[in-house]
Amino acid sequence: MESKTYDVAIIGAGVVGLLVAYELSKFDLSIAIVEREAEPGFGVSKGHAGVIHVVQPPFNSLKSILAIYGNRLYDKVSRELKVDMVRLPALLVARSRAQLALIPVIYAILKLVYGVRGFKVSIVTGEELRLLEPNIEGYAAVMVEGYSVIDSFELIYRLLDECRARGVDLLFNTEARGFRFEDDIIVIETSRGSIKARYVVNSAGLDSDILASKTGGSERIKTFLGVMLVFDTLQVKSIVAPLPSLRPAKTKGGGIIPTVWGNTIWGPSFTIVASREDRGVRAEDIIDVIRRFKELVKIKGRLIKAYSGIRPSTINGDFSISYSPLTKRIINLVGIESPGLTAAPAIALIVAKMLRDAGLKLVATRRAPHRTIHALSTRAKLALNPSDISGYDGVVICPCMRVSLADIIEAIKRGASTLDGIIFRTKLGMGSCQGQHCIGRAIVILQKLTGASPRSLTKNTSGSWLVEELRVDRVEE
Amino acid sequence: MKSREIEFHIVGAGLSGLSLARELIDRGFNVRVSEMRDRVGGISVLDSEVVGLIEEISLEVNVSLQATAVKLGGSTVIVSSSGVETIDRGVVAVGFRTATPIELGIVGDRPAGVYPFHAALDLIMSGLSPGRTIAIYGAHRYSVLLAEKLSEYSRRVYIIDPGSTTEIIPKNIEVIRSKVRVLKGPHRLSEIKLDKGSLEADTLIISIFKPWNPFPELPPVGHAALETYNPGALLEASRLLAVNLSCEEQTYRRVKVEGEIQVFPKTLTPCLRELLVIKPGGGRIEVNGRVYSISGDYTIVRAPENSRDLRVRVFEVWSS
Ligand SMILES: Cc1cc2nc3c(=O)[nH]c(=O)nc-3n(C[C@H](O)[C@H](O)[C@H](O)COP(=O)(O)OP(=O)(O)OC[C@H]3O[C@@H](n4cnc5c(N)ncnc54)[C@H](O)[C@@H]3O)c2cc1C
Question: Which of B72, B112, B153 sits opposite A470 (nearest CB)?
Fold first, then answer.
């Protein structure tokens, strides 16, 4: 990390930073991503619900507009990156006769706002609802087409692979702490020395406000906790949510969401929390989510997990995408909370345009990216052609999700250095038995294949050590 | 090995799978045991009372290691480095499922250092310690064995007992009677909040078990079917299932169970005249009106020989 000056340094390897890098890598630029953690996607982007949204009130907000713009870009993004994505409708369900009266009102509003933008909005009768969603209890529903669910883990890793293939430098375990200016160059002070760049994009998620404030930014982040429950079977084919009331709601949002890998998510809940560290799942939130959905759906399968994410919201609740007050060479992306995943491809395009307006030359690159060949997972091989299975593909480590030794080897080859890095890439341990048969063995494999000392292995962040050697003499207090 | 057709595929080479294999071999069948791990013994590897038996049987039986049963389009197959094999007649001996934090009502952070029992055992068997100050949640034979093993390596070990176990726990292991409520620790576990008070520990090994058969189209045996911490009961279950499986006439009498007891198997072929009834701590039970007493944790009852379905229930004075 000495004298090289990058054209653009992007701080934060969440879905937003990675998509910005991916978009910019199509131009003739030298790019670095600076990420505090050992791997990408360990921030806000690991704790979301994976929905590509349509409806996002208030309708005139930046996030509402970017959600629609981003939603449309996802067909291209998922095709280019070969990420699993399924288009499906959302159903807003009336659960009582009294609510039936709301159906035409909500229908008219949504039709007005989203119909003109090409999203089909319709009314579903009780009978049709039973045919569409036999597990759902309701009188009628408003259907909005054009949602999707995406394998958000795959999205992160495909972006990582693709950025690498296009020559983006990925600087992990590197925390940006402040900026200095040397003529036209911005020097980013990091935990591992300084990095020079002509332009900087701050996509640091939860801590984006702190970084923005180093060059005069005044946005502040307020944190909201979202708790999600995971069931081990599919309960629905569409995204299903209770019909919103027209009053401003205290508990807002969330739905019953089918994942692309066969689970169902309930949630998220929505509660304000005091600090960024305060991300534990609370019993009240679980009860809240269960209360909200238990009458809407017949529970199928077993509740296997509760997890949470923190939304970094600005004070006014909207995304803040702006130049630093000190210089147009720094762009701050603050408050990219839900639906930030949906909006991310649109944010990337806007950032590219803002950089151009600030003087960065965007010339399409003539360098062809390295071809990245993605090994077919054992799960896919088993589904497509079981007779292809042999060797390490046949050594199954996680029977629920059908993850093999070959998959773990591939994950490590592609950069997994932590347990979560393996889990997020392979879905090891995400099935019914929640890691009982695989987590221990995966740690042993990670240790053997990387040759790391047992004490240096982590689950994700640097303090999250996993094991130590089992020796009598080594225990110190 | 291919010379004779495999007549039974047993999934899991723990005490139950292996003992069932031996029972079937003794009755003249050709049996294969598939084990997903690279060792036999399951959760009984630390159990000095049965490891000898396990080793002995595993020498006699055809065991494929690193051969894993998975669901594939509605049926169960065995996957190994030599390919994918379908199962004609299988038995599920995959052992207990460990309860997940959410089903035990445990909330809070999700730090490193929270392991299901089996995962912790896998680490230990590979020479790794799951942590330093270790709380084991669940008080029974297997958690005590794990606790003893870890304290041999001078780890500080606690057993948290959510019920009131009758298991005898060695003096050097501290027992806390409580339920686990909330986990704290932004990165690695640092604190376990209990009903009353809390415990500073960097590791929680969840050792509360449920019988679970992940392949319901195949009959279960052992901990896949029964919650018992008595190896003797497991051996009996394997013997009874072997009688059922080897019976020429596959017609069944059904067993109906009432009250806090477990009965195995749930169906009886005409060859099987016995039933395993489990009631930890003992007590009295009633089978089609006849009363039996259990002195240990389980007993074998002779099934009445008429062809009616069987009704087994806890004997209560006022019910007869
Ligand atoms: C509960 C919940 C549910 C959600 N559901 C949805 C949904 O269904 N659909 C949808 O569209 N959106 C959803 N969202 C929103 C979505 O998750 C976020 O908008 C998106 O993940 C934000 O990505 P990001 O890249 O901005 O942030 P992050 O993923 O947090 O990326 C920021 C990165 O910057 C790194 N970083 C921070 N500070 C520094 C520093 N100083 N130096 C170096 N690196 C640093 C962090 O480690 C992190 O990796 C949800 C959010 C929550 C909380």
Answer: B153
